[in-house]
């Protein structure tokens, strides 16, 4: 979604109604600020569910992937990210690693992750979709709203009126 906003302004306006993620992410996508309703995946070093979900219509949602902070293998690369862009996802936040970083930066997609690793992940389909995931002192609930920019990530139980 392209409505301009700043997470710092949202915190100033909404205060304790918002959760602020303490985990420090790096920006990898071509879209630096993004927001939308949350969809979740919990998986560990296996990206089969990430691929499956991002190949479905995104409808402006943000996929939050809890990869357990593992940097041993990438949970998303350029092919899966291109599918997310093509299918209308607003962004992807990965508590783990990505790969194909130069290509990710060219996409019209918000992408945040802890880091990068060229190693492929497993493809067994292990994990869960649509469950609450927690990291950085925030619980990410499917259907809640995530707002992300250069300052960080905030989460609201409902869609916010942007200033």
UniProtKB/TrEMBL annotation:
<dbReference type="Pfam" id="PF03737">
    <property type="entry name" value="RraA-like"/>
</dbReference>
<comment type="subunit">
    <text>Homotrimer.</text>
</comment>
<protein>
    <recommendedName>
        <fullName>4-hydroxy-4-methyl-2-oxoglutarate aldolase</fullName>
        <ecNumber>4.1.1.112</ecNumber>
        <ecNumber>4.1.3.17</ecNumber>
    </recommendedName>
</protein>
<dbReference type="GO" id="GO:0047443">
    <property type="term" value="F:4-hydroxy-4-methyl-2-oxoglutarate aldolase activity"/>
</dbReference>
<feature type="binding site">
    <location>
        <position position="100"/>
    </location>
    <ligand>
        <name>Mg(2+)</name>
    </ligand>
</feature>
<dbReference type="GO" id="GO:0008428">
    <property type="term" value="F:ribonuclease inhibitor activity"/>
</dbReference>
<dbReference type="InterPro" id="IPR036704">
    <property type="entry name" value="RraA/RraA-like_sf"/>
</dbReference>
<dbReference type="InterPro" id="IPR005493">
    <property type="entry name" value="RraA/RraA-like"/>
</dbReference>
<dbReference type="GO" id="GO:0051252">
    <property type="term" value="P:regulation of RNA metabolic process"/>
</dbReference>
<feature type="binding site">
    <location>
        <begin position="77"/>
        <end position="80"/>
    </location>
    <ligand>
        <name>substrate</name>
    </ligand>
</feature>
<keyword id="KW-0479">Metal-binding</keyword>
<dbReference type="GO" id="GO:0046872">
    <property type="term" value="F:metal ion binding"/>
</dbReference>
<dbReference type="InterPro" id="IPR010203">
    <property type="entry name" value="RraA"/>
</dbReference>
<keyword id="KW-0456">Lyase</keyword>
<feature type="binding site">
    <location>
        <position position="99"/>
    </location>
    <ligand>
        <name>substrate</name>
    </ligand>
</feature>
<dbReference type="GO" id="GO:0008948">
    <property type="term" value="F:oxaloacetate decarboxylase activity"/>
</dbReference>
<comment type="similarity">
    <text>Belongs to the class II aldolase/RraA-like family.</text>
</comment>
<keyword id="KW-0460">Magnesium</keyword>
<comment type="function">
    <text>Catalyzes the aldol cleavage of 4-hydroxy-4-methyl-2-oxoglutarate (HMG) into 2 molecules of pyruvate. Also contains a secondary oxaloacetate (OAA) decarboxylase activity due to the common pyruvate enolate transition state formed following C-C bond cleavage in the retro-aldol and decarboxylation reactions.</text>
</comment>
């Amino acid at each position: 979604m392209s409505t301009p906003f700043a997470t710092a302004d949202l915190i100033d306006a909404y205060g304790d109604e918002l959760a602020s993620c303490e985990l420090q992410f790096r920006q990898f996508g071509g879209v630096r600020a993004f927001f939308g309703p949350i969809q979740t995946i919990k998986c560990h070093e296996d990206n089969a569910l990430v691929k499956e979900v991002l190949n479905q219509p995104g409808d402006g949602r943000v996929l939050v992937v809890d990869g357990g902070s593992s940097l041993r293998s990438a949970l998303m690369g350029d092919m899966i990210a291109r599918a997310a862009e093509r299918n209308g996802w607003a962004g992807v936040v990965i508590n783990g690693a990505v790969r194909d970083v130069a290509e990710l930066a060219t996409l019209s997609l918000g992408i945040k992750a802890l880091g990068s690793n060229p190693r492929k992940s497993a493809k067994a389909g292990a994990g869960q979709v649509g469950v609450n995931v927690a990291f950085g002192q925030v619980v990410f609930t499917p259907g809640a709203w995530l707002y992300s920019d250069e300052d960080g990530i905030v989460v609201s139980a409902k869609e916010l009126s942007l200033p």
